[in-house]
Design goal:
heterodimer; A: alpha/beta; CBS-domain; 2 domains; three-stranded mixed sheet; 7 strands; B: alpha+beta; 2 helices; 2 strands
Chain lengths: 273, 67
Amino acid sequence: MKYEGYIFKIKARQPEFDKAFKSYKERTEGHGIVLPQIAKKFNQSFQEFESLLKNKTGGNDSTDFRSSLSKMANINSYIKDNFGLIEDLYALRNVFSHRMRGEYVADIKEIALTEINKIINSIKIPRIVIQEFGKEVYTADEDQLIRCVVEKMKQKTYTHTPVYSKEGKCLGVFAYSSLFEWLADKLNNETNMEIIFDKIYMRDINKKYLNSPSVNFDWVSETKSIYEIIPQFEYAVNSSKRLDCLLITKNGKCNEKISGIITSYDLPSIKNK
Amino acid sequence: MDSEKKIFKVFETIKEKIDISPADSVITYLAGREKNGLGVREEIMILNKLYDEGIIDVVNNFSNEAI
């Protein structure tokens, strides 16, 4: 025997170590360790969850679980909201798959399996935006009277109204801030302070007020997971960009028919789903 | 406990250390003191076996007396 001291400084050789570890694991799992059926199911589900995480966050076999989980929590609010629970389930999974702790720790409850499957489903078959926020959205066409559009927005407290051309092309979004910007420009330019609003139709509005940076909206596809919506708003805030609403279309393209809207007021309702 | 299970316990102990260490680190394994139910001689033999089979590299090896 070459090494006799009890203190070893070692390095694992890759990929030989992983290969041998896997092989011994498979061989020993059948040796006297009988996991309860529910623990086996739980381990399988957790393995599926880990694969999903790696897949969604662009990880590979060498990516560790915690790093994939943190990345996923940044783009999925369901995972973020359940971060603590997932960490507990991860610890439980370690009990049953590492160091044979399952031999000494006795029981696993059905609720653990239910919870991990709920988390898997939130990624695999999430509620999508069209299911939750699909609705008739008030839009205006370019031939409509500005007076009527403004009146309707005031009456219904609509903050954003997409404006379409006769050909069905989206010209931009008319928002509260569009009027404010116009007023600000006028105050800046008019010397006698007599401001006259002489526009009649929506088409008369300068296009810069329909597409200005202060009109804070974005497009989102109908099939997007609702759990990716809160991170999108958070990302905007973190980038010092306010986001007032997301307009839903089939593929998230601006030239498609609008099938719903998500405003920042809708965010609390996502948390409760 | 059969021999394969003993070897696997050493594997698991090493794996756990690797998982929480920076990539490509040298890790310290204290045979007989890793609280995995194995004795000093058994673990020393297993580590020698893993070395012989090209699964680990032993960067250094010593006992208390040699320090």
